[in-house]
Write a structure and sequence with these properties.
By secondary structure, the protein is mostly helical. It has one helix and no strands.
């Protein structure tokens, strides 16, 4: 009977070791998976930050171009208004004898 008990203890010890090894292996896989996810998150944060900076640069460029366009439009409008005034009131501009054809 002692032989059977010893064999049962060896089997029990072997099963416990296999369970322990399996759990350790499982935990290692989980750690590796978490590390991969963390790296993926870091990569996405860097990528998102870069895209945000690019979008902000584009917004600044658009705002600058819009302002420049508005200034050109105002200058053109003033020029056209002055030209219209010359056509409507040529005497006010000292060239009364000259007619616009």
């Amino acid at each position: 009977m002692e032989k059977g008990e010893a064999q049962a203890r060896r089997h029990s010890t072997m099963i416990h070791k296999l369970n322990y090894d399996h759990k350790q292996e499982h935990l290692q896989h989980r750690r590796e998976a978490l590390m991969i996810q963390e790296e993926h998150i870091k990569y996405n944060k860097r990528k998102d930050k870069k895209h945000l900076e690019e979008a902000q640069d584009k917004d600044r460029t658009v705002a600058y171009l819009r302002q420049a366009l508005e200034m050109e439009q105002k200058a053109l409008l003033k020029h056209l208004q002055a030209e219209r005034e010359k056509m409507v009131n040529p005497m006010l501009f000292g060239n009364g004898s000259r007619m616009i054809e």
